[in-house]
């Protein structure tokens, strides 16, 4: 109407009055006859608005209705998920900062390696989550509107409506996008917007799934070592047969959901790959499942993950015991260096430590006893010059490198700038999450 087509204010008013007055039963009956969801609603709306019936769906296609709506929904969906993700990042950053100096065994190949800290390990999870926030934000910001493009994307029907005036067609395309809340639109489309758009969004959500699965798998491993636990209610039952069990069921649930989220990437990729020429309809049924499930799964996963992060429990004495079992081996190089500084010969010291280490290792592996390497060092007169320093040499805090400083720098330089974007909404989304398990 703004661009000069013969449309009256009365027709517009009639359509506006029917926005929330939808006869779904009538639409269902129409769909049984016409076997077309959009046309079923076009007929239903025409019956409700007889004055406006001649202009309903004027020049449009089903994808004008469906695809543009999907783009609006996808944008809103990402705007709902991003604050949830920010809440997880916020809570986990507090945890990382609190435990940035608490030593814990680091692992490579799932074998004890050098020490790290609880907070440093959490910062590794955080780093992945920041990449997910970036990917989801980019997917949201890159979204454009399909607008008015016609049956094969050429805008031929709209050019006919405006009697060959291409500038008015461009103005209509731009105006419809603005009214839908988009400042950009896809200049070229087929009948649909490219399903590559869906793939980009599902790829970001699938990446989030991979992050969550890795993090919650780590938590499950740490729980098995009794070093760290997810929240466990006072009356919660871990096992129907084993009353003592404290199963990490929240983390297991996150892994289960995340695994489903990861698999949806293949669905979106395959759907885009088989869209022949301007489009085929074998995308429709798949997308109705895949897009909805991706967002719902991500939402449930983030809610559960936030609950976990709000109640993580660390057991420092267990950490210390496990460190004590492995630290003597890790400290051998420090012992050698101390002996050299005290005037000892490095090669001689290295050989003595090697022999004692193998003896201690045999006690651990073959006899199932605790690591007694330090006792063996204390009993060997060769090491007498460094015995007064031995306690300091074995101080776990001297084996964590710059881990505490790294966490502080990471939070200040990378985490906080991201959280600042969500400052106004974090208070609401960070409220304690209660899960009905």
Automatic annotation (TrEMBL):
Instruction: Set out the biological process GO terms recorded for this chain's protein.
Output: 'de novo' AMP biosynthetic process
Q: Which GO terms describe its cellular component?
A: cytosol
InterPro entries per UniProt: AdenyloSucc_lyase_C, Fumarate_lyase_CS, Fumarate_lyase_fam, Fumarate_lyase_N, L-Aspartase-like, Pur_lyase
Q: Provide the catalytic activity annotation.
A: (2S)-2-[5-amino-1-(5-phospho-beta-D-ribosyl)imidazole-4-carboxamido]succinate = 5-amino-1-(5-phospho-beta-D-ribosyl)imidazole-4-carboxamide + fumarate; N(6)-(1,2-dicarboxyethyl)-AMP = fumarate + AMP
| N-terminal signal peptide | none
Biological or metabolic pathway of the protein: Purine metabolism; AMP biosynthesis via de novo pathway; AMP from IMP: step 2/2; Purine metabolism; IMP biosynthesis via de novo pathway; 5-amino-1-(5-phospho-D-ribosyl)imidazole-4-carboxamide from 5-amino-1-(5-phospho-D-ribosyl)imidazole-4-carboxylate: step 2/2
Q: Could you cite one Gene Ontology molecular function of this protein?
A: N6-(1,2-dicarboxyethyl)AMP AMP-lyase (fumarate-forming) activity
- What UniProt keywords apply to this chain's record, in alphabetical order? Lyase, Purine biosynthesis
Taxonomically, the superkingdom here is Eukaryota
SMART domains reported for this sequence: ADSL_C
Q: What is its EC number?
A: 4.3.2.2
Pfam families membership: ADSL_C (PF10397), Lyase_1 (PF00206)
Query: Key word Lyase present in the record?
Result: yes
Pinpoint the Adenylosuccinate lyase C-terminal domain residues.
327-411
Q: How does it assemble?
A: Homotetramer. Residues from neighboring subunits contribute catalytic and substrate-binding residues to each active site.
Identification of the protein by name: Adenylosuccinate lyase
Source organism per entry reads Euphydryas editha (Edith's checkerspot)
């Amino acid at each position: 109407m703004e661009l000069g087509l013969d449309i009256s204010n009365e027709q517009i008013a009639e359509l506006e009055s029917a926005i929330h007055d939808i006869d779904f039963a009538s639409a269902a009956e129409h769909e049984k006859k016409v076997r077309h969801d959009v046309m079923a609603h076009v007929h239903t709306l025409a019956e409700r608005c007889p004055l406006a019936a001649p202009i309903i769906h004027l020049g449009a296609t089903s994808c004008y209705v469906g695809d543009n709506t999907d783009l609006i929904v996808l944008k809103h969906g990402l705007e709902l998920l991003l604050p949830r993700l920010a809440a997880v990042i916020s809570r986990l950053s507090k945890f990382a900062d609190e435990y940035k100096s608490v030593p814990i065994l680091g692992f490579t190949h799932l074998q004890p390696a050098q020490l790290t800290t609880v907070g440093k390990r959490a910062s590794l999870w955080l780093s992945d989550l920041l990449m997910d926030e970036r990917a989801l934000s980019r997917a949201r910001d890159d979204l454009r509107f399909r607008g008015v493009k016609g049956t094969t994307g050429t805008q031929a029907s709209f050019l006919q409506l405006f009697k060959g005036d291409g500038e008015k067609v461009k103005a209509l395309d731009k105006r419809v996008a603005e009214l839908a809340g988009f400042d950009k639109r896809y200049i070229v489309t087929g009948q649909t917007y490219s399903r590559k758009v869906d793939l980009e969004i599902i790829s970001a959500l699938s990446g989030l799934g991979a992050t969550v699965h890795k993090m919650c798998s780590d938590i499950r491993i740490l729980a098995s070592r009794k070093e760290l636990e997810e929240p466990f209610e006072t009356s919660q039952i871990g096992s129907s047969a084993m009353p003592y069990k404290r199963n990490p069921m929240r983390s297991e649930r996150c892994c289960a959901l995340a695994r489903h989220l990861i698999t949806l990437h293949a669905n979106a990729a395959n759907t885009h790959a088989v869209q022949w020429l301007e489009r085929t309809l074998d995308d429709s049924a798949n997308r109705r499942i895949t897009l909805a499930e991706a967002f719902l799964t991500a939402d449930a996963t983030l809610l559960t993950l936030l609950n976990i992060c709000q109640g993580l429990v660390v057991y420092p004495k267990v950490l210390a015991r496990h460190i004590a079992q492995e630290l003597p081996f890790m400290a051998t190089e420090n012992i050698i260096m101390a002996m050299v500084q005290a005037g000892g010969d490095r090669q001689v010291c290295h050989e003595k430590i090697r022999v004692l280490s193998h003896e201690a290792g045999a006690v651990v592996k073959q006899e199932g006893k605790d690591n007694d390497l330090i006792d063996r060092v204390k009993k060997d007169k060769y090491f007498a010059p460094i015995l007064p320093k031995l306690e300091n040499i074995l101080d776990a805090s001297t084996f964590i490198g710059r881990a505490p400083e790294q966490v502080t720098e990471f939070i200040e330089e990378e985490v906080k700038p991201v959280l600042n974007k969500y400052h106004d909404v974090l208070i609401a989304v960070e409220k304690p999450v209660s899960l009905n398990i």
